[in-house]
Amino acid sequence: MPRTKSAVPAWESLFRAQVAVIRRLQRAHRGAEVPMREYDVLYNLSRFPDTGLRLRELNEHILLNQSSLSRLVERMEEDGLVSRSGDAGDRRGTVVRLTGHGLAVQRRIGREHAAAIGKYVGGALTADELRTLHRLCEKLRLAQESIPG
User: For the chain, N or C: smaller number of CB within 10 Å?
Assistant: First the structure.
């Protein structure tokens, strides 16, 4: 097991930092128009405004299991935040898209969320450290696609 002795404390540190920041962001998000999980769906859909995302693809971007995501998207559709339609290329698939209302909500909350990230992450690190953190996290994320198991 290569580098296990140094990988474990590095992971623990990353994980604990992430938990601490997420808790701060959740506190900052209290009272928002939609809960944090719904905002996460809105944010990810806003990245694909022209095509939307198949439910399966959306699930790859968030931390919910497929059935929980399906129920969440159903509630969000009832609230007018998203629309669902059949996938023209695969009738078994469902494509989820932002509605105009969903996009407006995402933008309003997104500004507040970005300000909170700036405060809790940007306020703790220098510009160089933020660039290094970004580079390292992207490298770690991308490596997961090529590491077997």
Answer: C
Residue 2 belongs to some domain of the structure: no
Looking at residue 45, its amino acid is: L
The tens digit of pLDDT for each residue in 12-51 reads 999 999 999 999 999 999 999 999 999 999 999 999 988 8
Q: How many domains does the chain have?
A: 1
Q: Which residue segment(s) compose the domain that 88 sits in? A: 24-143
Residue 107 placed within a domain? yes
Q: Which two tokens stand for residue 55?
A: 């439910």
Phi and psi at 54, nearest 5°, equal -65, 150
Rounded Cα gap, residues 94 and 20, in angstroms:
35
Residue 32, both tokens: 């928002």
Distance CA 140, CA 131 (A): 14
Condensed to tens digits (0 to 9), the pLDDT of residues 50-68 reads 889 999 899 988 988 888 9
